[in-house]
Design goal:
heterotrimer; A mainly alpha; B alpha/beta; C alpha/beta; A: mainly alpha; MetI-like fold; 11 helices; C: alpha/beta; six-stranded mixed sheet; 9 helices; 10 strands; globular
Chain lengths: ~260, ~325, ~260
């Protein structure tokens, strides 16, 4: 009985904030035309969704995001596996990775533009770079957390190193990898949009800056609302997938809780 | 009506030149860096009217609102042509980058209304550059044409530009920053002048026209390409400029025609009703050594001097009209 | 015939400051084919280390390990190790059937492995539990899954590391009975490490007693209780009680000496 109550009180808060938005804009509390009423924003949103413009742009953004996420995530898992199974590689490449990690992503966009241009290649790379690090870190953590007994079990049955990596290490580390991927997912959408805002004429990011340049506040917020909804839906979808993929992990967690 | 007959005449004149050799040929793709402002109306006109296609060109515009990637992108061969303000172009040339002017884009008009305006909060006691000393004035970027014209206005109206603090504020945020008191004045360019006055008209007022009060008809922005590319593909750029200049004619024939505002609304997404309040620039086809020399004099005066090549050498044949 | 031979096996771990730490010193023992041997020793004396070296899971520092006459440097196909912590050795993302099949699917393929797994589950009293996940079962049942998995590989020898220490006393008796039954039926060779004296006497033919660290062979005890044994009734035999007294004295005395 507690869950539905918490859920509805959260909905009430969101509804309250939205109402506050509408009222504050109608009464011009912020004293700026750049704070349009929610109703105007939703009208702009509905219009540009129905015209097909926003769905097309959002589709492009999501596609670039997904491609970057897949590339960066796969690379993160593979490099993590490599670092964990061959410590020499970790000693060799670890410092390089640690040097690249703290660079703010918007800062790598201009140099990347020089090599990869303004279109998909650059944006997907930027997203992949963003997605790579959380997955790498979590993969390495997950691999470190695999019990020695579990791996020894594989050895005692004469299972080779590759199969052990794929059938023991990887599934055992999967909960960690997915946790990293969920962090990457949230970042990936942000970074895809930022990259689109910086260069090229693609996606929701470009729509956003165009509308900002044109001084069309309702459309700006329509893009923001669309991004918020997309981000929310992506996270929920990912959680649902995660529950299916590692149901055993959640079951063990419930057992551990009592 | 004059515009219609002129357009007809122009397109008829162009037909025999362009059409026969290009029929059935695939188009050469050229990527052009632009900013979504009034200045690039002729380019979009030429695209929409098919002038580029008639020259065998397909123009792929890349809109960079910040302007930060336009010239670097040209150097990096991401673009064949970049639209940029004259000050940024000359500063790049000073740093040794081989930009050459392919075409003019815009100049200020001889008389108000300008495409630039200095705005302050209504009821503010700032009326001149003298009043701005020790105060904060916003420019979208430092060391570009907007800033240069703004500083020239400060000096022209009795102020010492060195004693005025420049703050970088993007155009879309200027009106709010001004109304909110974070800045004391702002140098706007169109269509943001009209936008600010439409939305904050009760709280903001215009106190100056930075171009017509300092340099009537002064240079503003151009299209540039890399010298190396121009040398190797001169014929391609001839076609580019020919089509672009037909777009200039199209625009100049419609300066009071709603068709122009609809064109601008289409690529800039600024609503037509706001564009009706916007002051338009002059749309030249060429670039003259005189306007560049005048610009360099002003730049040097405002701390942007240095070793520049002879301006005539920077103007490619397509802009020498 | 000796199936498993340990010859002067020594294990040392490198030490940052000073000489390497020796945990096992020149231990030699032989397990005959079909024999059930228990290794008994005080806690922390390195019994598990001994077993892991016998299984080829841990390299020896000195000495040799032979199984069926071959020197062991990697896990041999003849011997399978049964772990103390079934929660760590079972794979929580696989159901019981596929956990058992894991031992052989790399050789037989998943389909055939599942058939073998079902048969093995029947043998350990887990028929019908194939679709369950390990974490849905009790500790005793999970250790049965681990045993079924070990048997699925059809080893000649089981190396069992305190396999019943993590379950309650009744379940332990139950599992001991299961092991006795399987050992008798399949004529396996077993080396079982335990710190439970009763368990060692109940199950084993011989008991190797180790000293405290660094572990050395203290003595080899012949159990001599008749077969078949019963996990409960055997414990009441006078011979059992006498041996139990002797071994406990020995292990406890070691503390003082």
């Amino acid at each position: 009985m507690r869950r539905p109550v918490r859920f509805s009180s959260g909905v009430v808060l969101v509804a309250g904030l939205l109402a506050l938005w509408e009222v504050s804009a109608r009464l011009d509390w912020m004293q700026t035309p750049n704070w349009p009423p929610l109703s105007q924003v939703l009208a702009a949103l509905a219009r540009d969704i129905l015209s097909g413009e926003l769905p097309e742009l959002a589709g492009g953004t999501l596609l670039r995001m997904a491609a970057g996420l897949a590339a960066g995530g796969t690379a993160g898992v593979m490099v993590g596996l490599l670092f964990a199974t061959l410590p020499l590689t970790a000693r060799l490449f670890g410092p390089t990775v640690e040097l690249i990690r703290p660079i703010p992503i918007p800062a790598v966009v201009p140099p990347l533009v020089l090599f990869l241009g303004l279109d998909d290649a650059m944006k997907v790379t930027v997203v992949a770079l963003t997605a790579f690090f959380p997955v790498l870190t979590n993969t390495m953590q997950g691999i470190a957390a695999v019990e020695a007994e579990t791996l020894a079990m594989g050895r005692t049955f004469g299972i080779g190193p590759l199969r052990r990596a794929l059938r023991i290490t990887l599934p055992a580390a999967l909960p960690y990898i997915l946790a990293g991927l969920r962090v990457s997912l949230a970042l990936a959408l942000v970074v895809a949009v930022v990259a689109e805002m910086i260069a090229g004429e693609q996606g929701l990011g470009h729509y956003l800056v165009m509308m900002q340049f044109a001084g069309r506040a309702p459309e700006i917020y329509a893009a923001v609302v669309a991004l918020a909804l997309l981000g929310y839906a992506l996270n929920r979808g990912f959680l649902a997938l995660e529950r299916r993929a590692i149901h055993w992990w959640f079951a063990l967690g419930r057992q551990a809780e009592g | 009506m004059a515009p219609v007959s002129r357009r007809l005449a122009l397109s008829l004149a162009a037909l025999p030149l362009a059409a026969p050799p290009l029929l059935g040929q695939t188009l050469t793709r050229m990527r052009v860096s632009v900013i979504p402002v009034l200045d690039v109306a002729p380019l979009h006109a030429a695209i929409r009217e098919g002038y580029f296609a008639a020259e065998g060109l397909e123009i792929d515009t890349s809109t960079t609102t910040g302007g930060a990637t336009g010239l670097p992108g040209l150097v990096a061969r991401q673009f064949r042509v970049t639209f940029s303000n004259a000050v940024s172009i000359m500063l790049g040339i000073r740093e040794g980058l081989d930009f050459r002017f392919v075409s003019g884009a815009t100049r200020g008009t001889e008389t108000p209304p300008d495409i630039f305006a200095v705005l302050v909060k209504k009821g503010s006691d700032i009326r001149s550059g003298k009043d701005l000393e020790g105060k904060r004035i916003a420019s979208n970027t430092r060391n570009n044409i907007v800033w240069l014209r703004g500083m020239a206005w400060v000096e022209k109206t009795g102020g010492d530009w060195r004693r005025v603090t420049t703050v970088e504020v993007p155009f879309p945020q200027m009106a709010d920053a001004l109304a909110g008191g974070q800045i004391d004045a702002a140098i706007f360019s169109e269509p943001f002048v009209a936008g600010a006055l439409a939305t904050h008209g009760d709280r903001l007022e215009r106190i100056g026209w930075p171009i017509s009060e300092t340099t009537p008809g002064g240079t503003n922005a151009q299209y540039v390409a890399m010298k190396e590319d121009l040398d190797a593909n001169a014929e391609l750029f001839d076609r580019f400029a020919r089509a672009l200049h037909r777009g200039v004619d199209w625009v100049n024939a419609r300066l009071t025609d709603p068709a122009l505002l609809e064109l601008i609304a289409g690529f800039s997404r600024v609503p037509v009703e706001r564009l009706r309040q916007v002051a338009l620039p002059a749309y030249p086809k060429g670039v003259t050594p005189a306007e560049l020399d005048a610009l360099l004099t002003t730049m040097t005066h405002f701390g942007l001097g240095g070793r520049y090549p002879a301006t005539a050498s920077l103007i490619h044949r397509t802009a020498a009209v | 015939m000796d199936f498993l031979e340990l010859d002067a096996v020594t294990k040392e771990y490198p030490n940052r400051s000073g000489p390497p730490a020796r945990v096992m010193d020149q231990v030699s023992l032989s397990v005959r084919q079909g024999e059930f041997m228990a290794v008994l020793g005080p806690s922390g004396c390195g019994k598990s280390t001994l077993l892991q070296m016998a299984a080829g899971l841990l390299p020896v520092s000195d000495g040799t390990v032979r199984i069926a006459g071959r020197r062991i440097i990697a896990p041999p196909p003849e011997a399978v190790y049964v772990f103390q912590q079934y929660t760590r050795s079972l794979l929580p993302w696989r159901n019981v059937r596929d956990n058992v099949g894991f031992a052989i699917e790399h050789r037989l393929g998943r389909r055939r492995a599942r058939e073998v797994a079902e048969a093995q589950l029947d043998q350990v009293g887990l028929e019908g539990f194939g679709d369950h996940f390990p974490w849905q079962l009790s500790g005793g049942m999970q250790q049965r899954v681990a045993i079924a998995r070990a048997l699925a590989a059809e080893p000649a020898m089981l190396l069992m590391d305190e396999p019943f220490s993590a379950v309650d006393a009744l379940t332990r008796l139950d599992l001991q009975a299961l092991i006795l039954e399987i050992w008798a039926r399949r004529r396996l060779t077993v080396l079982l490490v335990t710190h439970d004296v009763d368990e060692a006497i109940t199950l084993a033919d011989r008991i190797a007693v180790l000293t405290r660290r660094p572990a050395r062979m203290a003595e080899m005890v012949e159990v001599g209780l008749p077969r078949p044994r019963d996990a409960v009734a055997t414990r009441e035999a006078p011979q059992f009680l006498a041996l139990r007294r002797r071994l406990l004295d020995r292990l406890l005395l070691r503390h003082d000496g």
